[in-house]
Design goal:
The complex is a heterodimer of chains A (about 350) and B (about 425).
Chain A (H helix, E strand, L loop, with lengths): L1 E6 L7 E8 L2 E6 L2 E6 L4 E3 L7 E4 L5 E4 L2 H10 L6 H7 L1 H30 L5 H18 L2 E2 L4 H14 L10 E6 L7 E3 L4 E5 H6 L3 H16 L2 H20 L4 H31 L7 H20 L8 H4 L5 H12 L1
Parallel strand pairs in A: 9-11
Antiparallel strand pairs in A: 1-2, 1-7, 2-3, 3-4, 5-6, 6-7, 8-9, 10-11
Chain B lengths: L4 H6 L7 H18 L9 H14 L1 H11 L7 H8 L2 E7 L3 H17 L5 H14 L1 E3 L2 E5 L3 H24 L1 H28 L1 E3 L2 E5 L3 H17 L5 H14 L1 E3 L2 E5 L3 H28 L6 H31 L1 E3 L2 E5 L3 H17 L5 H14 L1 E5 L17 H8 L7
Antiparallel strand pairs in B: 1-2, 1-10, 2-3, 3-4, 4-5, 5-6, 6-7, 7-8, 8-9, 9-10
Amino acid sequence: MIAADYFDGRSSRRHPVHLGLRDGAVVVEGEFGRRSAALDAVEICTGAERTPSTIRFADGAICEIRDSAAWAAELAGAGIGAGAVASAERRWHWALAALTGAVLIIAAIYAYALPWLARQLAPAIPSAVTQSISDAVLKGLDARLLAPSKTNPQRQQEIAAKVAALGSPGASLPPHRLLFRSAPQIGPNAFALPGGDLVVLDELLALARRDEDVVAVVAHELGHLRHHHGMRQLLQSAVVSFVVGVYLGDVSTVVAGLTTLLLESRYSREFELEADAYAGRLLLPTPASLDPLIDMLLRLDAAHAKSRAADQGGLFGAGDLLSSHPDTAGRVSALRAMKR
Amino acid sequence: MNVTSCYETLGVVRDATPEAIAAAYQRCLGELRASLDGPNPPPPERLDALRAAYQILGDPASRQAHDAALTPPTPLSPALAADAGGRKPHAFAFTGSGGEYFRIWIVNLFLSLITLGIYSAWAKVRREVYFHRNLVLDNSAFSYHGNPIAILKGRAIAVLLLIALTAAQNAGPLAYGLAVLTLLPVAPWLIVRAFRFRAHNTSYRGLRFSFHGSYRQALTAFVGYGLLAAISFGLLFPLFYRQQRTFVLNNLRYGSAQFRCTASGRQFYGIFLKPLGLALIGMFAIGFVAAAGGASQLLLPLAFAVGAMALMLFLLPYIRVRTTNLVWNHVTLERMSFSSTLAVFAYFGLVAGNLVLLLLTLGLYWPWAQVRLARYRASCMSLLSAEPLDSFIAGESANVAAIGDEVSELMDIDIAL
């Protein structure tokens, strides 16, 4: 028999009782009298270690047992175990397994599920939405960072024609619009906006030795468009920053922001490789093959390294980690492998 | 001897003079003698009661002690309070441990993840059960009875609402404004439902709590006073805060016994004055820094960071400690009252220590932090009662849906009892 307190559910009066299991029934005995109920007519809630356990009768009366261990033993004697979840909660090795499992699941979501979901969803987003996002971004950039291009319109048209020539009847290019701008602050660069606007900066034209060099970079940007990288990046970073914000928002917005940036840089690495592969397929049949792209990658890297050095290492010297075109050596060797 | 009835026994008002009490005693004795010959003579205990009442009220010291037992108590330490009304403090205690809760928490997290969030309703029940069961008062624990299916339904609706709200936010300011306007009248309803669900699913000694606030009261307390606080630039915020707390407590019942909170608006202003002053000084300092050192771009964010840190580490814990003490020291439950003696500096230490350990463990310290807070809060709380806690009776019971509770949880509305 185990010592317990019985409450009749109608008043808060405590009745000290003894209780036990007899023939599949809970039996409660004390000064107030005796009460028994079949096991399946009561609700048993067994607490962990020092947490009290309760037995609830159908009419709302309860029995509170302070000695949960003794009660669990009594139940076990009658062949009633704690639930699977309750048993797992009681053992450290199960807790550690759950911790490992939780970490693995979160890592898998981050590494596989989220990119997969974004890849499925991005093409399905109506072009009106992507175009409006694109327009808003371009407007913001034009207002602050970008100036009108000084390249003469004839050269612009020549480049556009060479880009268009990349497409073949079997593999048409993704819808795009070439825009020329100047931005000394940004340096040599080109970028694609989700709606299909492909911005080429004068500084990139200055760095290029031939038109083929520019075309090669544009082919890489077309790869971003072809794979909807802009939209995918937007979707993934929305989820990542939301989760990180919820998790770390209480700690500090700076910490949350840096963490988000770090987590997202991994995604952009994959996108660069994917865009390179697409550009490689476009450029392989051209006379110059992949050489202009490899050449431009190296020259861009050198140019950015120079400007980084001028910035004195950028943010905490983490420039490499946060750069959106990392690991140039790896990309170049991937392209060389493709050429062979 | 029933302590409430001394004045009633003699038929005098509470502030009667000693002369008036003596006169009333003589009159009662005369009436008693006269009625002894009548058709229904009074029971012999009547004379004893009169004598005892006069004995207590006739002596200034014992009358004072008697009064103290009647009035809602002023904040006294438990020991002092016990002397005054003959009431004994019953200490609250939290018996949970960080390790135990960590295991519950991590298993909950894992199962919620692999079931795509569905298990989170069961996880919530396990968490609440753990924290209720380990809160002990006078050798009996509290209990939680939330039904996971009800919580799951509430959670689903809450998530849909949140998605709709986010969508409206993205659709533009007009749509968002409309959504907020439509939600404003719904909010008090949700709040009432949330408190009903929580109270109804909490029990102690086999009796349930219940909540009886109305939609209109919630509308006044949350929306009405909230708008007042907003248009007064926060000057009326302490009143808004008081209104929320009293709305909750004055509508809360344990069994059929009613909670009452008598903390006044003035007392709330007393608490908010210091942090408000400090916040103002801080903002002036930031403004000054911005005006003077406009050239330094680093200083301003730094000042903001320091300000946010001070808010989180000191201002909010300070307000929490002082208001908790104020509220619970002015709560009565029938003839019982409460004592809350949270200490500001001890609480600062707890919050700061928890934060550091959370950072060092990448958040894994969370369950220990929660348990430490619960343990400290419980250890500072006691119930003052002259009689054993045996005499409460059940109130009427009702079934309550979980929707309000879930929405308010997702929207981060603080509804801690």
